[in-house]
Amino acid sequence: MAVIEQEAKHRRPHPRSLSGSFIELDLAREVEDLEREPEWETGQNAKTLVKFDDYRVVLTALKARRKVPPHATDGRVSIQVVKGHALLRAEGRTFDLRPGRIVTFDRGILHELEAIDESAILQTIAWPRN
Predict the structure, then answer these.
(1) Cα(60)–Cα(49) distance, rounded to whole angstroms?
(2) From the CA atom positions of the chain, what is the Rg in Å?
(3) Could you tell me if residue 118 is left (phi over 0), alpha (psi between -120 and 50 degrees) or otherwise beta?
C-alpha cells in the first residue's frame, strides 16, 4: 500500500479529461507548467496531454544537453520541437529539429533525443488498432 501511495504523490492531477471529442491545448502554457514543477530540476519533465487506447500526445521539456536514451515504440511516431533546438538520432541518421520542423517514423525504430538548447518536444504516437 505504501508504494501505491508514494506513486500517487508523484502523479500530477489532471484537471481535464485526457480524451474526448475535442481537446484544446495551449502548448506555451503547458511548457511553462512543466518548467515550474520540481521534476524540472532533474533536467527533464514530461506530461501526457492526450491519451486514447491507440493514440498519445506527450510533451517533454529538456534542459540543454539532456538526453532521452534510445528507445522504441510499437506505434508510429511524430516528433516536433515547439521550443528550443534538439537532435533526433535514429538508424544512423541525425535530424536537426527546431520549431516548425517535424520528423515522423515507423513503429519499432530505435531513437534518441538530445536537447541542444533548453527545449520542449511534442511527441505524437499512434498504435494500430487491435
Answers:
(1) 10
(2) 15
(3) beta
Q: Considering the domain boundaries, does residue 86 fall inside one?
A: yes
pLDDT in tens, 62-113: 999 999 999 999 999 999 999 999 999 999 999 999 999 999 999 999 999 9
Q: Give me the residue label for grid cell 520541437.
A: 81
β-bridge partners, 78: 104, 124
- 6 belongs to a structural domain: no
28: enclosing H helix or E strand: helix 27-36
Residue 97, CA distances (Å) to 48, 77, 102, 118 in order: 21, 15, 7, 13
Predicted TM-score of the model (pTM): 0.84
Domain of residue 99: give its range: 24-126
Q: Which residues contact 72 (CB under 8 A, 6 or more apart)?
A: 107, 108, 109, 110, 111
